[in-house]
Amino acid sequence: MPMTILPDELIQRFVSIVGDKNAVRDQADLAPHLVENRGLYKGASPLLLKPASTEEVAAIMKIASETGTAIVPQTGNTGLVGGQTPRSDASDVILSLERMSRVRDIDPVANVIVVDGGCILDTVHQAAEKVERMFPLSLGSQGSCRIGGNLATNAGGTAVLAYGNMRQLCLGLEVVLPTGEIWNGLRRLKKDNTGYDLRDLFIGSEGTLGIITGAVLKLFPKPKGHQVAFAGLNSPADALTLFDRASTLCGAALTGFELMPRIGIEFTAKHIPGVRDPLETPHPWYALIDISTSDKAETAQTMIETLLEQGFEAGIVQDAVIASSEAQRQALWHMRESMSDAQKPEGGSIKHDVSVPVSKIPDFMAEAEAGVLQAIPGARICAFGHLGDGNIHYNISQPVGADKAEFIARWREINHIVHGIVLSHGGSISAEHGIGQLKRDELADIRPGIEMELMRRIKTAFDPAGVMNPGKVVKI
Amino acid sequence: MPMTILPDELIQRFVSIVGDKNAVRDQADLAPHLVENRGLYKGASPLLLKPASTEEVAAIMKIASETGTAIVPQTGNTGLVGGQTPRSDASDVILSLERMSRVRDIDPVANVIVVDGGCILDTVHQAAEKVERMFPLSLGSQGSCRIGGNLATNAGGTAVLAYGNMRQLCLGLEVVLPTGEIWNGLRRLKKDNTGYDLRDLFIGSEGTLGIITGAVLKLFPKPKGHQVAFAGLNSPADALTLFDRASTLCGAALTGFELMPRIGIEFTAKHIPGVRDPLETPHPWYALIDISTSDKAETAQTMIETLLEQGFEAGIVQDAVIASSEAQRQALWHMRESMSDAQKPEGGSIKHDVSVPVSKIPDFMAEAEAGVLQAIPGARICAFGHLGDGNIHYNISQPVGADKAEFIARWREINHIVHGIVLSHGGSISAEHGIGQLKRDELADIRPGIEMELMRRIKTAFDPAGVMNPGKVVKI
Predict the structure, then answer these.
(1) Whole-angstrom Cα distance, residue B254 to residue B236?
(2) What does the alpha-carbon distance between residue B273 and residue B251 come to, in Å, rounded to a whole number?
(3) Largest CB tally within 10 Å, which of A29, A311, B284, B393?
């Protein structure tokens, strides 16, 4: 057992709410909940609680608030900024929503689904599929991430271009407040202008303002046509031109436009089973273009052919393939989605999740490459991502043969270089992963004082006792 | 001059910021700023200020905050809930953004436009048009309403179905806080997960948390195909079925689906010059269907023909016309947009701006009609609106020959009946117009105590001196 400042009598009060078998105190069982995926953060905790209902969550928060006990909400534990990891002094109790994983209701005519905060993203996909609808949020971790966490981090993923991020996909919330009160904001309305936008304040607040225990999400008609192309390009500038043409040609039918570098294709072909370079000769850059059409299947095919023809004629597409089956479409997306995993066998990777206005992508890429290579000659830049959203995962693999620990030790230094260039283009240091612990202090450094002050005022107004995921996002 | 509690020395301090010729004190000149469009509210004020810059707005708010002087921001004065009208004790200073009406920047590649808070909506439309782009917000008042007010009220309009309301159309804001500090949140990013969502908190706060002096708005590619149909239907239930088919068939290409009753067509044909019933025989209900396609013009035509064919075959469309020219498309929309004005010659009208989940529209319409006719036999219900968003303008014209004043005196009573039915279906008492003065107390009655408490905490955290449009939205 770790040393904890929490008295046993207090722990017993918490345990009695959920029952012994839903309270984890054994450190071996707790262990997977104390670290995040990349191993950047490791915390400690004497207790994990698994409430079965909103009322149990509320009862936990009431005691927490009365006794000043910090609560860390956790859903799929797939976050990438340490927002779900307890602090290291074993003073935080973890609250897991894994037992609250139901689909509460689904209405295909109104195009809504109502789910528990602990509902797994894939469960939502399957429930929508059963009624001939579609829920567009698509993430690598969709088999384990849960809706409460997706909302708490305003998750993005690969379908943001056409459908938006979680904030755009959510109509209503049920939230347990730090004080243990329950806010029932489970509205199913597309339009509702009745006072301050509490919903969007909770979305993206990373569990620091309350615990999202339920949500109303939007569903969409399933597209009838779907087509994917993979194109070899000479530069990010050509990719931007192609994106601009694709937007104009396809409008809302353009559901994905991803940029990848040559080295990313090499890494995936080398390390990910079944992946091979789809084109005959190498190209410096690649675009993955995804088109979904609602009227009929052929429109997607016509659109993608027209786009590639225009691209060839303009000299911006060097070579391309169009997927000829659903299996090929999935294979092309699999390559893109494996790009981060494919870096792992290549040693240490310093990561960034940044965005700039889409028109600034080429300048950003050139300046960041120059800055990084000046600092670490031989660094292998594997910058890929959602070009259509201006969101690049600017990942940097260590030079061949370099010492991994020494390379990773330069994380902050390299962040500083890349983020400086991002900010010079009016960009964001966290496009979709959030702030958590990882970027909390950096955010305070780069944002105007008044902005941080407003965030602190909100935090204090919602969580006067300071018990709701303290130490994340904003320092009080 | 009205009696005012503001000392002349204080008024002089305000005047000195903007200069004499930009400070209105003459009551004849002030008069149009003291009433709102429907004449429901009439306020009093000794002073209207027209700052020319964000810095001047900030200087005004600094003095206001120091001296506890209430400021009412006003843009196009087209709001419908009294949010822009000063209170009646002549203690509020009006701050007009009409001199801050510039387009600051436009970037067609990034699809963004940056404008002053006082920029007229039509100016944004024209600027977008010049660079082959489109800004989708479309309102009857677009020639006079201004972006700051559109944002402050989270304006909706006729294109919400495909493009969302102002919250979805805005990327960044510049806001002068009640304390006179300036928050520069003029980001141009589609993805930015860096802390609490201040932007969406200011949007829809109706000038009670700060003054929106600048905004970054999204632009879209201009659709290539555009087609409008007008269909005669038997019931709201058939309209809902048709809408469901249209959504499935057209997906994001379905840009408008408006419901209108027979009496609305009669009123417009009678009172609006140039409007005539487009169909040969009368039908109880009508749908206006608007389709915009990005790939080519013909797709819109094919889609609308297919939809109407399906509707005829299923027996849900009784008769229909497809516009054969841009002039006809505009004429059909003009009929829809004149529906509120066409009620005026028919005497008093009690209005509601409500929303319910779209699947509940038929039940809501039936129950509301029964409730209203029981209270006022002979009342003429002219309920029309954005069926696709679940948003109905449930307007009720007085019975023929009734006394207008007596009818209007029953506004609250009828609101109570209609809103009760709305709430029983999980709906909203203000879908797009906001709360202002008109619905402030009713909101507090119907919403859970904790929700109003959170709003009050936010208001107090942002505006500790209580000087920012006091008395609107939430009572402190």
Answers:
(1) 18
(2) 35
(3) A311
**Cβ-nearest to A474 among B109, B195, B391:** B195
Report in angstroms the alpha-carbon separations of A370 from A356, A363, A366, B241, B291: 17, 11, 6, 58, 47
The three-class DSSP label of residue A266 is helix
| Sequence-ordered alpha helix ranges (H) in A77-225 | 121-130, 147-152, 160-163, 166-169, 198-202
DSSP assigned state of A295: S
Which domains occur in chain A, in start order? Answer: 103-221 (3.30.465.10), 225-337 (3.30.70.2190), 347-424 (3.30.70.2740)
User: Using CA atoms, how far apart are residues B45 and B91, in angstroms rounded to an integer?
Assistant: 6
Among the partner-chain residues A195, A244, A443, the one whose CB lies closest to the CB of B474 is: A195
Cβ distance B447 to A194 less than 8 Å, yes or no, reads yes
Residue with the two structure tokens 């002030």: B30
Q: What is the pLDDT of residues A250-276, one digit of tens each?
A: 888 899 999 999 999 999 999 999 999
**In the 3-class helix/strand/coil scheme, how is B186-198 assigned residue by residue?**
CCCCCCCCCCCCH
Question: Which chain A residues touch B109 with a CB distance below 8 Å?
Answer: 240, 244, 358-359
Q: How far apart are the first and last CA of chain B?
A: 29
Closest in B109, B156, B455 to A191, CB measured: B156
Give the helix ranges, DSSP H, for B338-439: 361-375, 404-408, 411-424
Closest CA to A435 of A424, A446, A425: A446
For residues A394 and A382, give the distance between their C-alpha atoms in angstroms, rounded to a whole number.
7
What residues 166-185 of chain A have any CB closer than 8 A to a CB of chain B? 167-168, 177, 181-185
- Its ipTM equals 0.95
Q: What is the mean pLDDT, run by run of 10 residues, along chain A of 476 residues?
A: 78 98 97 91 96 98 97 96 95 98 94 97 98 93 96 93 95 98 96 97 98 97 93 98 92 93 98 95 98 86 96 98 95 94 95 95 98 98 95 97 96 97 97 96 96 98 97 95
Of A187, A201, A360, the CB nearest to B201: A201
- The verdict on a CB contact (< 8 Å) between B109 and A389 is no
- Residues β-bridged to residue A393: A353, A384
Nearest to A66 by CA among A456, A459, A466: A466
Task: Classify residue A350 by its DSSP letter.
Answer: E
- DSSP-derived letter for residue A399 is P
Q: Which among A99, A83, A71, A30 is positioned nearest to A176, based on CA atoms?
A: A71
CA dist A310 and B21 (Å) reads 56
pTM: 0.96
Of the candidates A228, A219, A24, the one whose C-alpha atom is nearest the C-alpha of residue A110 is A219
B106: phi then psi, degrees, rounded to nearest 5: -140, 135
- CA–CA separation, A319 and A307 (whole Å): 13
Q: Between the CA of residue A26 and those of A2, A20, A43, A50, A428, what are the distances in Å? A: 10, 12, 15, 14, 40
- Which residues, other chains included, contact A399 with Cβ-Cβ below 8 Å and sequence gap of 6+? A376, A377, A378, A379, A380, A407
Residue B123 to residue B381: CA distance in whole angstroms? 35
The alpha-carbon gap from A408 to the nearest alpha carbon of chain B, in Å, equals 24
C-beta separation of A361 from A236 below 8 A: yes
C-alpha distances in Å from residue B112, one per residue of A357, B188, B189:
9, 7, 9
Distance from C-alpha of A290 to C-alpha of A228, rounded to nearest angstrom: 5
**Cα gap B336→B333, rounded to integer Å:** 5
Question: CA A412, A415, A416 angle in degrees (round to 5)?
Answer: 85
pLDDT tens per residue, range B163-201: 999 999 999 999 999 999 999 999 999 999 999 999 999
Contact, B260 vs B381, CB < 8 A? no
Contacts of residue A242 in chain B, CB cutoff 8 Å?
Answer: none
